[in-house]
Amino acid sequence: MNRPIIEIKNLLVRRNNRTLLQVPQLAFRSGTIVSVIGPNGAGKSTMLLSLMRLVIPDSGEILYRGQRILPGISIHRYRRKMSMVFQEPLLLNTSVYNNIASGLKIRGMNRRNIRPAVEEMMDLFGIAHLSKRSARSLSGGEAQRVSLSRALAVSPEILLMDEPFSSLDAPTRESLIADLDRIIRDRGITVIFATHDRSEAIRLADEIIVLNEGRIIQSGTPAEITLSPADEFVAFFIGTETILSGAVTNAAEGVFTVSVNGSGVEIMGEVEPGRRVTFCINPENIIFSANFPETSARNSFRGKVVKAVSQGLFHKIYFDCGFILVGYVTGRSMETLGIRPGRELVASFKATAVHVIKVA
Amino acid sequence: MDLIVDGVIQAFHLLVSGDPEVIQITLLSLKISGAATLISTCIGVLAGTVIALIRFPGRSVIVTLVNTGMGLPPVVVGLFVTILIWRSGPLGSIGLLYTPAGMVIAQTIIAAPIITGITLSAMQHLPGRLRLQILALGATRRQMVWLLMKEARLPLLTGVMAGFGGVISEIGASMMVGGNIKGYTRVLTTATVMETGKGNFAIAIALGVILLILALAVNFILTAIQQRK
């Protein structure tokens, strides 16, 4: 286990009588990619700005390799170990080359050493041909590539990114994420990036921190967060819309049954009858068929399609079987099953596919 | 009509022949307004940047004063400075009345708020997060201010042009503080007024044309710098 490169202890940031961020303890291990996810106003940007010491907290401290970082005239020495990329590229009104070189010039590096560092970054991000172009004439994707090149040219130990891809179109975002993933893993840079896009987080991160209203709700690997969300908020935020609750009616041989609006849902685990359980089912685990399938799935319910929403390659299906289940089907399944609002189908899922969020 | 035509012809002769008095007046105008613009640029850019970047109590009052100062009537400035440096006034002992130095002070008071106001506006119009981005690049506070100034260089030069334009063309303050003394404090605007009063339209037109050329030339140079890629 790597030692923490940066830690937060008892951090509290309040503005206008509102708590923007309250983190009792949080450590970021060296060389990991951590994604901070949460809705708008969750405190993601405040966390990154606090780590960069660009926000003055009301209380608490930041530790870099175990040492307290205090605000003061030498704070730039601490900031020079890091880099930050904002949602907007925030380029200087000069050429692409000068923009990428700006962090190195600020650090007082001489021109002879600046050139190879800048050229290396331009090659890595595929923007060498833009070197002499004015930053003002770039497209959104090009400008964000310049911004990332500028941040990485200074060889930071820690790279902070605040929703760096949110203003880009899908193909540009995909290619930029792929390039960035390769570069930061090759260099072993610790990355902390904020996003409200869960797929971005799952794609890039080794660890995910879920924030809401300034507080950490859950942290863990992408698999842990996706398969075992800590509460309804996390489940919903990572894309699980099927969140149900009911009373346990029966329990035997490691399986218990929860009554939801009169239907029994079988769940793997041990909970005594009479307890109230809140659980969720990932959309990927729900299978739709025309008739009851001959599979090991313990849960199969007949019902009707309420609506189908196109998500590009997939369609999101809202299915009413006494309670609402949300699942995905491919375009091809849409055709073969004749899915449309009102269509009668059977939805199935395994007892192991159900994640219990809360037992009351 | 003949009056204007004759005036223009005579003005052309004066300009081409290089009349020593006209040259002396032109150079003095350039020196006084140039010095006032230079001093105002130092004061205005610094003050505008500080007001834009630092939050302090009474800041909005200062901003209102700066904005008011941008439209300060030169004749009021002239009156104020004249009283201040009048022989029996608070600064009378320094002996600045009817001197080029006194004129520079008066013109600085006119140009400084213009440059301060435009600098303030230019700095405030930079993206709010640019400051954070520059600090995040590891800049010291001084480096950040310098980079922000470089980012705002186009409107800052507009401020300098507006400041110079304001003082090279003003007459009230120069007349009251300088006194229009021949060969010492006579500048293009005061000389133009005097020659017009005397009915010497040719000289007045010549001086007016020089004033226009001067303003055009200085702004041409500053615009060239401003629009440089």
Write the layout of secondary structure elements.
The complex is a heterodimer of chains A (360) and B (229).
Chain A lengths: L3 E12 L2 E12 L3 E5 L6 H8 L7 E6 L2 E2 L6 H5 L2 E4 L10 H11 L4 H14 L15 H14 L4 E5 L7 H18 L2 E6 L2 H7 L2 E6 L2 E6 L1 H6 L4 H6 L4 E11 L2 E6 L2 E6 L7 E6 L5 E3 L9 E12 L3 E7 L3 E7 H6 L7 E6 L4 E6 L1
Parallel strand pairs in A: 3-8, 3-9, 6-7, 7-8
Antiparallel strand pairs in A: 1-2, 1-4, 4-5, 9-10, 11-12, 11-14, 12-13, 14-20, 15-19, 16-17, 16-19, 17-18
Helix pairs in contact in A: 3-4, 3-5, 4-5
Chain B lengths: L1 H16 L2 H34 L5 H11 L4 H12 L14 H25 L5 H7 L4 H11 L1 H16 L3 H7 L9 H11 L2 H26 L3
Which fold name is given in CATH as the topology of chain B? Answer: MetI-like fold
Query: Could you list the spans of chain B in which at least 5 consecutive residues all have pLDDT below 50?
Result: none
Quickly give the CATH architecture of chain B.
Orthogonal Bundle
Roughly what fraction of the amino acids of chain A lie in strands? Answer: 35-45%
Q: How far apart, in Å, are the first and last alpha carbons of chain A?
A: 35 Å
Structural class of chain B: mainly alpha
Main sheet specs of chain B: none
Q: How many distinct folded domains of chain B?
A: 1
Question: Largest interface: which pair?
Answer: A-B, 23 and 17 residues
Largest beta-sheet details of chain A: 6 strands, mixed
Q: What oligomeric state is this?
A: heterodimer
Question: Would you mind describing this structure in some detail?
Answer:
- The complex is a heterodimer of chains A (360) and B (229).
- With 360 residues, chain A is of the alpha+beta class.
- Chain A has 10 helices and 20 strands.
- In chain A, 26% of the residues lie in helices and 37% in strands.
- In chain A, a hairpin with a 3-residue loop joins β16 and β17.
- The longest helix of chain A is centred in the middle third of the chain and has 18 residues, at 170-187.
- Chain B has a single domain, classed as Orthogonal Bundle (MetI-like fold), CATH 1.10.3720.10.
- Classes of the chains: A alpha+beta (360), B mainly alpha (229).
- At the A-B interface, β6 and α3 of A face α6 and α7 of B.
